[in-house]
C-alpha cells in the first residue's frame, strides 16, 4: 500500500469513535469556513465549497452545522480567518511527509507539529525540504456507482485528465494542476458533485518500509492526523500488504 495517509486503526470503543468523529467534524468545519471565506458562499458558484459540503454530508454532519460554518466564513469575522500552511519533514525509515493545515495560530500549530514529529521518531524540516520529491496534482474522486470504469475513463480523457484508476473504492481521476478546474467542472456536469476534488501531493517515488519502521511511521501519521489543525497528510512510503495486515490486526 502506497502512503497517502490511508492507515486507520479500527476503533471499537464508542468513546474513541465519538472522539474521532468530533475531530473529523472540526476539520470539515474549518474547510467549510475557509471555502466560504475565500469564495462565494453559494456552492453553485464555489467548487471548493461544493466539495467541502459533499465531504461533510458523507460524514453525516447535521445540516445546521454545515450552514453555520458557511455563514461564519461568509461573514468574514476575524474568528473565521484560518490560514493555510504546509509543513514538511521526515518520518522513520527516511519517509518524506507533507502536512497541510488550517490554523488560526501559526506559532501554536508549528510547535505542535514539530513536537509530533519529534515524539514519533521523525523531524520537521524547512518548507520545500521534501516537496521536491512529490508532484502537485489534481485529484478527483467519484463513487463507483456513478459510471462504469470505461465511461469514466472516456469522459475523463475527453476532459483532459492525466490518468484514471477505478476499483471497488471508486474512480480516482488525476490531472495536471493547470487542467484541474476544467476536468473537475466537466466531470461534475456529467456525473454530479465528486466525493473529493482537491490539489494533492503525489510521491514521485516510494520508499519501502520494513515492519519495525512501519509501525512507528503509522503511529506518527496517525498522531499528525489527530491534530485538529491538520487537514491532510501525504507521505511517500510503501508498506507490504502482509505487513500492513499484521499491524492493523
General description of the model:
There is one protein chain. The chain is of the alpha+beta class and about 250 residues long. It folds into three domains: about 70 residues, Orthogonal Bundle (Arc Repressor Mutant, subunit A); about 90 residues, 2-Layer Sandwich (Alpha-Beta Plaits), CATH 3.30.70.980; about 50 residues, no CATH class. Helices cover about 45% and strands about 25% of the residues. The chain has a four-stranded antiparallel beta sheet. A four-stranded antiparallel beta sheet has the order 5-6-4-7. Helix 1 packs parallel to helix 3. The longest helix is centred in the N-terminal third of the chain and has 25 residues. The N terminus is likely disordered.
What portion of the residues fall into strands of 2 or more residues? 15-25%
Strand order of the largest sheet: 3-1-2-9
Structural class: alpha+beta
Q: Largest sheet at a glance?
A: 4 strands, antiparallel
User: Rough shape?
Assistant: globular
What fold name stands as the CATH topology of the largest domain? Alpha-Beta Plaits
Order of helices and strands: HHHEEHEEHEEHEEHEEH
Please tell me the CATH architecture of the largest domain by its name: 2-Layer Sandwich
Tally of discrete structural domains: 3
Just give the CATH class of the largest domain: Alpha Beta
CATH homologous group name of the largest domain: YebC, transcriptional regulation domain
Quaternary state of this entry equals single chain
Return residue spans where pLDDT drops below 50 for at least 5 consecutive residues.
1-16
